[in-house]
Amino acid sequence: MFVEPDGRISEGGTWNLGFVDQDGTVIWPETPVLPGTTMLLRCLDAPKQITAPVRLADVPNMAAAFATNVTIGVRSVSTLDDVKFSQDHPVLAALRDAYVAIPGERL
């Protein structure tokens, strides 16, 4: 996970990172990132999603965290430093369902 000098979380080496707050809102960290397909699609009709700064100090207040990229879809993150996250949060299930429902493209 990359962290900006001011403590803002951005992304991983080959994946975007998202969080779920205590109200069930998906938060995409607001920093310069390479937006991945899943992030750009916002998983279509998935739960409420916003882009906002997320700092390391905010992590303990998050209910869940997840990584996305084209090969893994939506994968829950179990731990960041000493903070453990729910692996079965209902928003994560909704995001996974929305990702799986994206129609494939013929090549």
From TrEMBL:
Coiled-coil residue spans: none
Q: Does the keyword Oxidoreductase apply?
A: no
Which segments cross the bilayer? none
Task: State one molecular function term (GO).
Answer: transaminase activity
Alphabetically sorted, this entry's keywords are: Aminotransferase, Transferase
Protein name, entry field: Aminotransferase class IV
Per the UniProt record, the source organism is Streptomyces cellulosae
